[in-house]
Amino acid sequence: MTAATTPGSGPLSGVRVVELAGIGPGPFAAMLLADLGADVVRVDRPGGAALAIDPAYDITNRNKRSVVVDLKAADGPARVLDLASRADILIEGYRPGVAERLGVGPEACHARNPRLVYGRMTGWGQQGPLAHRAGHDIAYIALTGTLGMIGDPDEPPAVPANLVGDYAGGSLYLVVGVLAALHHARACGTGQVVDAAIVDGASHLAAMIHGMLAAGGWQDRRGANLLDGGCPYYGTYETADGKYMAVGALERQFYEEFLDLIGLKDFGPARKDWTRWGELREAVAARFRTRTRDEWTAVFEGSDACVAPVLSLGEAPHHPHLAARGTFTDHGGITQPAPAPRFSATPTSVRTGPAQPGADTADVARDWEIPGLLADGA
Length: 378
Hints:
Blueprint: E1 16-20, H1 25-35, E2 39-44, E3 64-68, H2 76-85, E4 89-92, H3 98-102, H4 106-112, E5 117-122, H5 137-143, H6 163-188, E6 192-197, H7 198-205, H8 207-214, E7 234-238, E8 244-248, H9 252-262, H10 277-288, H11 293-300, E9 307-309, H12 320-325, E10 328-331, E11 334-337, H13 361-367
Parallel strand pairs: 1-2, 1-4, 2-3, 4-5, 5-6
Antiparallel strand pairs: 7-8, 8-9, 10-11
């Protein structure tokens, strides 16, 4: 293979994935598969996708290769079906029925490749009253009750970027699903359709909270519980320089160490006394306002008080622990998260920068033995 190819030595080396280009959770899921060593071919549409950033900076397309196919052209569907016939997994993020109308739905793909795992990434799912409606992350997590849990009780719910819905409830569940289905396909010889809906995944993420709610250990309102900011020793506090510290001293021994280091040892009994939580919160907040974030970081350095500085995106790669682990890496002039998780026998890496639309057509046509991908069919 030439230097332009991306298949790597990760645990998914040898797995072929077709990604029908979209935005958000589909590309991120395909990036994760690519990071793990899969040979991911992204089928870009002419003109690119709506809301897309400059392709040179779209790291969700790293470790992939790209071909451009116009699915509305007469020969477009046939080119995608050729790819599907040689793939292990296909990922698409269209509204229900669109892939079928374009001629690349599960039935057409399975007719060419019965072992194919066909992954469908949507917000609402393939069935249900809202299945054909437009939507974005914020609406999906709103309906699941997840958004309503986040934020100050006296303020509107806080928007957690698009991490909880698109990526946690969407991409990660799609990846788990297609890998589980791939295991089944290899064991039984038959592929299947994986319906990954963000509303399902985001709801599933809150399984523990639903259990606590049923047991009477969680109030169905913001800022009133152990893990949602309601607890004064599990939350964030402003420092003298307008920055923040995060406190997570839940267990007794960690709580006691936290009080000792912050200088509030007299509040030991308040840990289990909800009637004193307001008083404790005010005392902790007042103490944190007396020093800067860096000064407090030094106070808690090396302790088990479970306190950490709240860093910005730009600061995070420079934290000594993250730097020592190589949690972030630089590739092509872009600082970015390194592949995760890590493997002892099949290490992963950022092998290539973001795939440029159509740049890899000749390589993919050769490596996948699909000459029809080339414009002249040669």
